[in-house]
Fold these 4 entries.
Entry 1:
Amino acid sequence: MFRKILIANRGEIACRIIRTARRMGVATVAVYSDADRAALHVGMADEAIRIGPAEAAKSYLNGPAIIEAAKASGAEAVHPGYGFLSENPDFVEAVETARLVFIGPSANAIRAMGLKDAAKALMEKAGVPVVPGYHGHRQEAAFLAGEAVAIGYPVLIKARAGGGGKGMRRVDDPTDFSAALDSARREAESAFGDGRVLVEKYMAKPRHIEVQVFGDGHGDVVHLFERDCSLQRRHQKVIEEAPAPGMTAEMRAAMGAAAVRAAAAIGYSGAGTVEFIADVSEGLRQDRFYFMEMNTRLQVEHPVTEAITGLDLVEWQLRVAAGEPLPKRQEELAIDGWAFEARLYAENPARDFLPATGRLSVFDVPEGVRVDSGVQAGDVITPYYDPMIAKVIAHGRDRAEALARLEGALRQCRVGGLVTNAGFLARLCRLPAFAAGDVDTGLIGRAGESLLAEPDASEEAFALAALSALGFLEAATEPDPWGRLRGFRLWGEAARTAFLDHGGVEHALRVTIRGKENFRVEHNGLATDLRLHSIDGSSLQVDVDGHILPATVHRDRSAIAVFFGGHGHAFATAEEAGHHGEAAAGGDRLSAPMPGLVRIVAAEQGARVARGEPLVTMEAMKMELVLAAPRDGVVAAVPVAVGDQVAEGALLLALEPEEAT
Ligand code: ADP
């Protein structure tokens, strides 16, 4: 076994690898960018080496700097985690040239599976079923449009170098094909430097079922059963589970055998995942699953497989990379119970899942679930990397028990300081179709708006925020808890008004002190009577008409996070309100809603534009953002150019003042 390994990654996966290495007595070297100097993975590792500035391209994607760090630290092997350099064959070769071990497959195996078109051709040859479609070399728009007709609409255009749903467009109607092709190519070109695409049949009711495989590089390959990742939003996984609902022993055996064939065909070594798409318009059928691609690395959702097999896949990776045989044979592997994983993100479901950045003031997930995270309360989610806060993994004896555990953990988790998808994930767990195991990739899309919108803050939540804003909760934890409040009465000041911003709207709340720990809060003509039953730091119990309920109120400067009744709500004290408002507001200006790269500038100075016309396209945090003209007018200035990296709030385009146009 290795004595020391370097982890060429950050965040939760770096922390997760460090934990296993430590248990195995393997020393760890972390690497970090300037933005991550204080990050959790840096503190957890035995040593940490700076590799560059915040931008991933100059740090976590900087192969030479990482190899330099590995050599300087005396590490013998490099674990790439997932993302970044994990599927980069040139990096694998550079690692091996430096006489280090790459903890993962060979450069050739990665290359064989790196391009979706070549991989499909290879799999067809190996007798693995592939999705019907065109995955040849020709790329002329007219030819591809013809292929699309031959395949039959709807079709899916996919970047051959694709990943993470990028460069993928569903097309329902031949008249939309050419625009979709352009847009897919543009996205693929910018993300992968390769605009070539394939076109395949779009399944009407698809399920994403993938099989975890492991190879020893000497011809031995096993599979560790399947994961169902059908709960997706815009082709991105949201909640994964293992095993797959409705899976029969025969179909599992067929899919497992196909996955093993796929891995064996390329002499695979280490952890990999063979992704299949199953057409379930007539239920799960053995003759209706098709190879999509193989991910030649450990995947984000590997913990659900660990939960049902009781194995540590990172340990397996280290053992195989160190030259040991696979720890178990196929017949020694078995499924125990059911597991789910939800990806907790700093993002706003109500605003089209716009990624959020900011300081995580509270981060607390109840016990009973596994939490894989790379951040802790007080850390900042920066715009530089993926805004995932944590993965929450629940295991149970059966599907219902595991799902109940996940839902409970998501409902009770307290993540404050920035907007998250926690409420959205908890609502997903309660979707009747999901609970019944009737999943397909369109489920979230069909479920509609109610999934996205956070419920309004209750009057109790408003009341608690008002008490915090006025300093009454903090006062309650002082040594003479009610001294300060009594003071209000002595001074004859029995009522005060709190001004709070909530969702961009200012609220005035009149708080009357009615007795020890007893308050009446008036807001919008409604009165809420609250008694503080107990208080311990930010955790309290409140008595609402004799009903004692838990709450958490967390104050971080002007930001107040209230968790009550299963929901989290963000408030700001009004002095600060306004700073939280829309950066892009104002009819004359287009500003960047988040940091990102300017991709397209569709208008120049002097151009006359119409309201709603797309003017600037940005790429930020995995998405293309199209910013449209706020009104009819004439462009006064475009201070940015294609290729510029802009900060949040940066002016992108200004219109001439209204009266001049
Ligand atoms: P990426 O590598 O960008 O993640 P994949 O090829 O793995 O792309 O596909 C991602 C998701 O897109 C799948 O899980 C599935 O939901 C959807 N998808 C892919 N191919 C098809 C298809 N032919 N028909 C319907 N949905 C598909």
Note: DSSP finds 18 helices and 39 strands in the chain.
Entry 2:
Amino acid sequence: MNALLIIDVQNDFCAAGKLAVHNGDKVIRPINQVIPKFEHIIQTQDWHPKDHLSFASNHEGKSEYEQIVLPYGEQVLWPDHCVQGTTGADFHPELNTLHTQLVIRKGFRKEIDSYSAFFENDKTTSTGLHGFLSSLGIKRLFMCGLATDFCVKYSALDARKLSYDVTLLTDAVQAIDLNNSKDSALAEMKAAGVDFISSGEIDTALNG
Ligand code: VGL
Ligand code: ZN
């Protein structure tokens, strides 16, 4: 069984958002085009409290995009984004969310960030997604959304570790690209056995 996993297509990662990903809005059209091909659609939603430790504003003397070390490892400090209950945290209004079966919220614990749809950044706290997918017999995931080099990458790598087949829709993702992180993300995903197709190849990928 296949599922489409749509990562963080939220206003704050799109044009004029607080952490706007360059060309972030461009993922919406290909995502909407593949949605009718799937029986199971799952979305993630970055969902931070105002005092979240991934926000530079909560660390005196630190700047946005600086890296710090936390008990669970390295953490990039971001502009405030996807604050719970704000418009910035809403899904982009042009994304078709009608057929979404499950929304996994992540990053809602003040003291831990969560890039991956499966595990928070301590690599042990589960979001519950693996249990959900397993109980439905879903073994193959098509991934799309924002951002290629953070939440998409971490989700794809965790999915491979959990032995899912993973296919990235290359025209339905966009990257933040800090210090060449886009190219290294694509290389890491490739090395982990992630397949890459464009959304136009979805029928062949699904029907062989
Ligand atoms: C993301 C940085 C911070 C993402 C979320 O969705 O890729 N990136 N929070
Ligand atoms: Zn975030």
Note: The chain has a mean pLDDT of 97.
Entry 3:
Amino acid sequence: MKTAVVLGAGGFIGSHLVKRLKNEGFWVKGADLKYPEYSKSEADEFVVGDLRDITVVRNVITDNCDELYQLAADMGGAGYIFTGEHDADVMHNSAQININVSKVAVEKKVKALFYSSSACIYPEHNQTDPENPTCAEHTAYPAQPDSEYGWEKLFSERLYLSYKRNYGLNVKIARYHNIYGPEGAWNNGKEKAPAALCRKIAEAPENGAIEIWGDGKQTRSFLFIDDCLDATTRLIRSDKSGPYNIGSEEMISINEYAKLIMQIAKKTLEINNIKGPEGVRGRCSDNKLIEKDLNWKPHFTLKAGMEIHYKWIATQNKKVLV
Ligand code: NAD
């Protein structure tokens, strides 16, 4: 039986990945500071522990494991990573985890390691025009991410690639672009735009208003969780290392995105654009490289994915149920 270890298995993407790997017949070990919040983990073994501690990492990563997924990070949405208030923790905590994991992966002769980097590594100056952002993989350098979160991801990409160069670690790196779907943070301050907008729209009274950070003309693209898992498992099982973008090319402004969700919710609400952390002006995945090398592209349209996502948030939100 093939074995997989998922670090960050109590988080949004990690908990879905555990389910996917179990369905594929893997024996799966998960680790996180916490259990998943919205459903029971399907992992065969789950370690609640702090991966900043190398003894915990040594206990979690099994010898010769077939697939190791490193998703654990101190992260959140714009309200968490773009305000500057959590910079030291974000950099220290996530870097410490990656320093431990890269070293132990070599010690334990892991067969393949997947690392989740982020679109936040791309230089700010290539993302000033909301209509024409540049996020092709080769444009990452000269580097100038707009957040410390992005700098830590870039450092850790280089850390893993150094372990590949010097110790033969079989590394695969993806730069995720805004992954969304059921069972992610939606109301605890770590939620990202898709969940935050769904919650605001679900909570608003009919003909009421919602607040949106920034002028709403900033653009993004969003990828549904099932597509993210398809690309992730395809990459770790390939002979490529990346980094590759894993995202959608369906770019939309945040105000238009809110209107799409209102359509799904069958509500007409006013949009109040207010001052708030908003990140770069424009960002969209560029999938040319991953399409060419791995023959992958997303299946879900934004509308199809958001219908599933909105329904989940609306049922979480008790106010909507009464
Ligand atoms: P998440 O916050 O839901 O999951 C991360 C998990 O890591 C959490 O459950 C958290 O408890 C755990 N963790 C943090 N510090 C830890 C520690 N010291 N020891 C053990 N566990 C610890 O986030 P997610 O959305 O599932 O993202 C997974 C990965 O993908 C992260 O590395 C994130 O940076 C990256 N990523 C996600 C997105 C996205 O849109 N969701 C975009 C780009 C990159």
Note: The chain has a mean pLDDT of 95.
Entry 4:
Amino acid sequence: MEKVLQPFFTIFDENRNAFTRYSSYEERKLSDMKGYFANEARRQQMEEQGNPIVYRVYKQDVPLKEGELLHCITMIEPGHVDGEFFMTKGHYHLNEDCAEIYYGQKGKGLLLMQKGDRTETIEMNPGTVAYIPAGWGHRTVNVSQHEPFVFFSVWPAQSGYNYQRALDEPFQKKAVVDGDSYKLV
Ligand code: S6P
Ligand code: ZN
């Protein structure tokens, strides 16, 4: 008999910027992000001088089959590499029919999207609900130098990840420090 997935819930813990319970946790340090920042020499130097965590992902695992939904919380630390703000690696979904929703919870971020030569940017503040249509590559950036950027995501369980494509077709826009704010270059 097929195993029935039990309904479940978790609570967002405001102090830890995480779910109270989660089934998997991943962190990405600067050492995991070779080649992602324009100034690779500076990234390497920062890796050697402490290798800070760039972002953390708290995920609820469900069966990876059509009909189920994955969801997670991502927390990007404040910081930058030679002026380029800390960000996620960014990816396309392997299954290009799969869209995604992001919900801003804390801090200030940018959602950078691209499809072919088209780019779109959505500023993410607490309460922003952003829709990433199927087929668009997506990356998030923390554009605060002082506080974490935290957002919730939900997406189809059969989406998969294509990180290689985001390397082959790098995100065209970069968010860089501009005084106490940011600018896109
Ligand atoms: C998954 C969704 C997010 C990201 C997370 C980390 O489809 O888009 O949960 O996985 O924000 O980003 P990345 O690019 O390292 O997977
Ligand atoms: Zn995604």
Note: Residues 4 and 38 are 47 Å apart (CA to CA).
